[in-house]
Write a structure and sequence with these properties.
heterodimer; A: 434 Repressor (Amino-terminal Domain); two-stranded antiparallel sheet; B: mainly alpha; globular; DNA-binding (chain A)
């Protein structure tokens, strides 16, 4: 899944290790999420959302372009 | 991405080199043992020029592989400056597993050597030679009681969700390889196409596939 994690991390001048420490995950996990090779669980996505004070949908893009039901 | 990030992201390839080089050293050492055993079986005595050249070739291979391990481990250590808390715990536990595994391997090798069981040149893990009941019970206690406790702690405290996912994927691949491969080998044996299924070989293949997929998914 595409995401803004790398940009948000760069804006704070954090390394992958710094972000990993904030999220209590490894650098490999941060790298895998940034490169779209791993989609975080919902709890981790909320943790990322709280850390950057942004809604989940502003950080992650599932590229859904269909019409909403409502 | 910082330099430290780039160095850390190459650790998967380095670890693969370390594992492959380690296996290469073990296999080459086995080839040396087999060569010397064959030489003894043919009457022994001084090695000829061909024998010395062959052993020098084996020594060169082992030296090259040892150098590859040293070089990759040095680079991995240099990239480990910024390890997160979980990564440090994970790394220390894996070092512990390797040390304990090595100690068990050495124990079995020393025992086999002391009772003269190494004439087949087989690695201790593939050995079917009998061991004293006390040693067998100690190893079973470690494998069946201590290992699950360590594994539980590792899953709960040391690894994160990305590694847990990679580990689960490794389990799926290994389980399917076992479910497809083991009956296939059994049927091929019954049909006279293959040697009798070997439990240790099946276990080693299962564990190797699991580990390979786990590391690939973790570091890719």
């Amino acid at each position: 899944m595409k995401n803004q994690l790398k940009v948000l991390r760069a804006m704070r001048s954090w390394s992958q290790a710094d972000l990993g420490e904030h999220l209590d995950v490894s650098r490999q996990a941060v790298n895998a999420i940034e490169t779209g090779k791993y989609d975080p669980s919902l709890p981790l996505a909320f943790k990322i959302s709280r850390l950057f004070a942004l809604p989940i949908e502003e950080i992650f893009d599932d590229e859904f372009e269909g019409a909403h039901n409502d | 991405m910082t330099d430290a990030d780039e160095m850390a992201n190459n650790n998967g390839r380095r670890m693969l080199w370390v594992i492959v080089s380690g296996l290469g050293i073990m296999m080459t050492a086995g080839a040396v043992a087999g060569y010397l055993a064959a030489h003894e079986a043919q009457g022994g005595g001084a090695l000829g020029t061909a024998g010395i050249v062959t052993l020098c070739g084996f020594a060169a291979i082992i030296t090259g592989l040892a150098f590859a391990i040293w070089r990759n481990v040095s680079k991995m250590k240099a990239s480990n400056e910024g390890l997160t808390r979980r990564e440090k715990l994970n790394r220390n536990m894996i070092y512990g597993f390797v040390l304990v595994g090595g100690a068990i391997g050495l124990l079995l090798t020393f025992y086999d050597t002391s009772v003269g069981n190494l004439d087949t040149g087989a690695l201790p893990i593939f050995s079917d030679n009998p061991v004293p009941p006390v040693m067998a019970l100690m190893l079973v206690f470690f494998w069946a009681v201590i290992m699950p406790i360590i594994a539980w702690f590792w899953h709960k405290r040391a690894i994160d969700e990305q590694e847990a996912s990679a580990y689960r994927d490794g389990g799926y691949y290994a389980a399917y390889a076992f479910l497809i491969g083991a009956p296939m080998w059994w049927i091929l044996w019954r049909g006279g196409f293959a040697p009798e299924p070997d439990g240790v070989a099946i276990f080693m293949l299962f564990a190797s596939i699991w580990t390979a997929v786990w590391l690939w998914k973790k570091y890719r």
